[in-house]
Amino acid sequence: MSEQIITRSEVLPIRTQIDLVHVRQRVRTWLSEERFTLIDQTKIVTAASELARNALEHGGGGEMEMSLLAVGARKGIRLKFSDHGPGIADISKAMKDGYTTAGGMGLGLSGSRRLMSEFEIQSSPESGTVVTVTRWK
Questions:
Q1: What is the pTM of this model?
Q2: What count of Cα atoms within 13 Å lies in the side-chain half-sphere of residue 131?
Q3: pLDDT tens for residues 83-130?
Q4: Alpha-carbon distance 40 to 55, whole Å?
């Protein structure tokens, strides 16, 4: 398999509600420029919005690192959301549809996993939470 190459990267802060808007706008701009389909754009922006909101509301803020990827002729986008909050005590429980600690629908993490090609989550009380998602064209 070919080596994964990052062709473009940008880091955005997630500290306020306005930052959530900027995350959605920048993700959509990159996807449009890279000619992702409208359906893929909608799925990826939805996942980005949910994960950014989680970083703000549950993690007290953080950042999103957005990277365009190339593996041979294959293109994709990777979004990495990091916070330094309290972490997730039970990741498997948090990944279940309907599980919520904030009174929402409980579809943020599990829904984001379904919308993307790849999903990885790491969390601990000492280091917060990192969610990395990738979508391939």
A1: 0.90
A2: 29
A3: 999 988 777 777 776 555 554 433 578 889 999 999 999 998 888 999
A4: 22
CB 96 within 8 A of CB 113: no
Could you say which DSSP state residue 89 is in?
A: S
CA–CA separation, 115 and 99 (whole Å): 18
Q: What is the pLDDT of residue 101?
A: 56
Residue with tokens 């919308």: 115
Q: What angle do CA 20, 45, 24 make, to 5 degrees?
A: 30
Sheet holding 5-14, edge to edge: 5-14, 62-71, 74-83, 128-136, 118-124
Taking each helix axis from N to C end, the angle separating 38-57 and 108-115, rounded to the nearest 10 degrees, works out to: 150
DSSP characters for 7-31?
EEEEEEEE-SHHHHHHHHHHHHHHH
Q: What is the pLDDT of residues 13-52, one digit of tens each?
A: 999 999 999 999 999 999 999 999 999 999 999 999 999 9
Tokens 């969610």 appear where? 131
Provide the strand spans (E) within the chain: 5-14, 62-71, 74-83, 118-124, 128-136
